[in-house]
Amino acid sequence: MSDEPVTPSLREIASVFTRYANLTWGGGSATIAVLRKQIVDKRRWLRESEFDLSYALSRLTPGTNLLAFCTAAGWTRRRWLGAIIALLASSIPCSLLVLLVTVFYEELQGSSWFQAALHGALAAAVAIMGSTAWVFAEPHVKAAPWKAIAIAPLTVVLAVWLHFSPVEILLIAAALGFAWPVRKAPG
Amino acid sequence: MTKLVLLFWIFLKSTCTSFAGLASLPEIRHELVDDRHWASDEQIDQAIVITRTTPGPVGGWIVAVGYMVDGVPGAIAGWLAMALPSLVVIVLVGYFGKRAQHPRVRGMLQSVVLASATLLVLAAIPIGRDALDGPLAIGIAVVALPLLLAKRIETVWVVAAAAVVSFAGSLLALT
């Protein structure tokens, strides 16, 4: 199979980001894992290395990581138009859903079927977050197990005991990674 | 109009200086609840519940707060403030993309991805503590995890099945 990525049309970008960036509970990273399956594994719009670049930099961008990731992914293949369409497609439908739920908040809070269904969706979200962490880490754990053994416990110590913010931890990780170069691309 | 512009500015200032969905919460709460009395603590808490109720980014909570403060225009201000900072990533991707094959840049990206994955596991813990409160919910998570790792089933179907099972369980009073 050729390593050349597929360049999507703007319509395809709009369609895929509308469908897959707005339908997952568990926050931005869980949604990015769903998008990864679509745009790396299935449609080959991004190479693994381009995905890592977009994901890592989206975590270091102010604001909402998921939207930064979609913008970066759109920009990588279709520059400005791709970025703007991916950003709109990934932010408008979920914002409309938030608006609808806000407007009908009282009714939904009182609805037992809605609460039961939401309870199930949140239980699935825990599994989604766990599987997402592994999907993202797996190529790097295999390529650089010692780095994984160093970074994961360090992250836990910094976050849980020393109360560093996520962006501070990611900047420390970036500095460590700069000092610990990778000679061969993962995957 | 002035209120709307100011609301947008408060949102934008907070999202531009935070790096995760709810990281802007303390500043927005301080501005809107303590300083200006445009929203109550209860409304802010409600917005957080709403963002957890809906799929997509957690950062969407400011759309809910925007609506509570100033109706639909306020919600649009929240959406704009949530979306605009994302454009900064283009500068970063443009700069690092040209250097992506450099071993040190690869090392940085690899470490950031590994740290992000660990942070994600840590973020799942409080959600798990709330959501996995009975045998049915625990069962859903235990069944969903291998299905998701096998990558054969779309995530949205796993979520839909979990919602249906939980709803059916509530009818049978299993939760």
List the helices and strands and how they pair.
The complex is a heterodimer of chains A (187) and B (175).
Chain A: H1 10-20, H2 28-42, H3 48-59, H4 65-103, H5 105-109, H6 112-143, H7 145-161, H8 166-179
Chain B: H1 2-16, H2 25-35, H3 41-53, H4 61-83, H5 88-97, H6 103-131, H7 135-150, H8 155-171
List keywords for this structure.
heterodimer, A: 187 residues, mainly alpha, globular, B: 175 residues, 2 domains, 8 helices, 77% helix
Structure, briefly:
The complex is a heterodimer of chains A (187) and B (175). With 187 residues, chain A is an all-alpha fold.
Describe the model:
The complex is a heterodimer of chains A (187) and B (175). Helices cover 78% and strands 0% of the residues of chain A. With 187 residues, chain A is mainly α. Chain A has a domain at 10-109. The radius of gyration of chain A is 18 Å and the shape is globular. Chain B has two domains: 2-86, no CATH class; 126-175, no CATH class. The N and C termini of chain B lie far apart (48 Å). In chain B, helix 3 (41-53) packs across helix 4 and helix 7 (135-150) runs antiparallel to helix 8 (155-171). The longest helix of chain B is centred in the C-terminal third of the chain and has 29 residues, at 103-131. Chain B is flat and about 50 Å long. Chain B is built from eight helices and no strands. Chain B has 175 residues and is an all-alpha fold. The chains are: A mainly alpha (187), B mainly alpha (175). The interface between A and B is large, with 116 and 99 residues.
